[in-house]
Amino acid sequence: MARIARVRINNFRGISSFEWHPRPGFNCLLGAGDSGKSSILEAIGWCLSANGHRHATDADFHGLDTANPIDISLVLIDLPDRLLRLETYGFYHRGFDPEARELEDEPGRGLKTAFSITLRIDWTMQGRWSLDTARVEDEGDRHDMALRVLRQLSLLQLQDESTSQLTFSRGSVLFKLAEETLELNGALADASRAARSVFGDTAESQLKETLEQVRSIAGDLGIGPAVGARATLDASQVTLRPGNIALHDQAWVPLTRLGLGSSRLLIAGLQQKAKSGADIGLIDELESGLEPHRIVRLLQALGAKQPNSDFQVFATTHSPVVVRELSAEQLLRVCNIDGVIETPAIDPVTMQGPLRLYPEAFLSQSVIVCEGAGEVGLLRGLDHYRIGQGLPSLTASGTALIDARGVGNILKCAKAFHQLGYRVAILRDDDAQPDAEQEKLLVAEGCELAKWPNDHALEHAVFLGLPGDQGLEVVRRMIDLFGRQSIEQQINNHLPQGQSFGFDMADLADGELTDDQRHACVSASMAQDKSWLKRRGIGVMEEIACDVIGPALDHCQPWMREEIDKLFDWADDA
Fold first, then answer.
1. Domain over 3-158 is classified CATH 3.40.50.10580
2. Which stretches of 2-143 are assigned E, i.e. beta strand?
3. N- or C-end of the chain: fewer Cβ atoms within 10 A?
4. Beta strand 70-77 with 3-12: parallel, antiparallel or unpaired?
5. If DSSP codes are grouped into helix, strand and coil, which group holds residue 75?
6. Is the pLDDT of residue 369 over 90?
7. What pLDDT does residue 537 have?
8. Distance between CA atoms of residues 88 and 77, nearest Å
9. Where in the chain do CATH 3.40.50.300 domains reside?
10. pTM of the model
């Protein structure tokens, strides 16, 4: 099967310039809305479909500038035998070096035999295809041969409604599944005649008076052929073709009426079984109309789970299910910077884990990389509180939270997201620091850094940053979770000799922590085998942040309040 080795797009819709070398098999584009993902698929479809009846509009030109033509160029390699015939196509063959990603005008040793096809649309709004080669100067010949080549290719488009694929029209997946051996013209002609006969008999009885008037008037006027006039279907208009044959369900409802997701899934499954399948597939918003388990099934049907699929697919998605199911190599991040499309590679070593754990982050605009689950819970809880107060939320600003799972991973994760074009912020403890020079470089490149001061960890922020009465409220919640005896004993173990926690129930409700008790709570809560805030996942910290820290934030220590405000202000500025 032929595949695309290079895509170049200039001055098409929101794209001023774009160059990409897609991989064999499955290619899925992800990025912010209006970044140009769908336009890339549309451009590929325009170039490969050779639809001479399609007319562009001013809106198809970048910046509505019709003075600069639309240019869409594709390099095709792995050509089937029918397109390698030297006597037919030899003058138009070129050579492509897949390692250097360079196109040569002549085929040669170590090069893939290739076609370079360009679609150009100028101010006349008419598209003109051409096979690019320096060996043939006549533009008309290059145009005619380009159309001839494109007719030899098979394109499966699942962009919108694809109902024709569920009929036996020529080129449909059903036609290919039948191995193109359909000999139905005779049967369809008989069916057309039978339909005219049946309708004619019905019309004869229902239109009897009208027909008698027509015959009488024709006789009076001497129009012989109309004297015996009958009403039936027009033989010149009613001709059944294979395209009129469609699949139906048990109740004789056409399967062309299936929902978008179901029809796409069925077509993809049929395509997989067809012996002469499509070379290239296009599917925009892959997840449309499908539940998560059927999204996975569609990916399987499109060959996304096959390591060496011959079927090259170009898809777009906004679904975390799709992101989670695909490998890093199959995903392409699309960044549109004033019309120039950049596609930074997603490093499989660094990012495959986050793709599985936090697929939503790859569909966001901004990412806060947190040192651990406690920091994720803190920001989630504060976000819930802010929403209740009518303040902007992190989700509204397109911000996702990532658990780096330790200070040793935080800069590596932040750098990887930064290189992919995301806005990145970091929230970390200061009891253990990452590489200072690397962190300084990330901050200089535009990453935001929020951290607790003076070797503090999250536990310091909770018990030293909060007012004393709110710190005691946190202790009360720990007692509810882990029992009074256990929590008091742990605090007493870290108090100066002669002191005891010793709050009764009334004090727990109305009192506040002393400075010694605050520091004892920090030490007790950080004990690795007794960690209060992390022992039960992010839920404990999320609840404390929403119910305790959020309402008290204005009265917290400035160093705590400033770091938290810094992150939410950064997210709001997206």
1. no
2. 3-12, 15-20, 26-30, 70-77, 94-97, 102-104, 112-121, 127-131
3. C
4. antiparallel
5. strand
6. yes
7. 72
8. 17
9. 3-158
10. 0.80
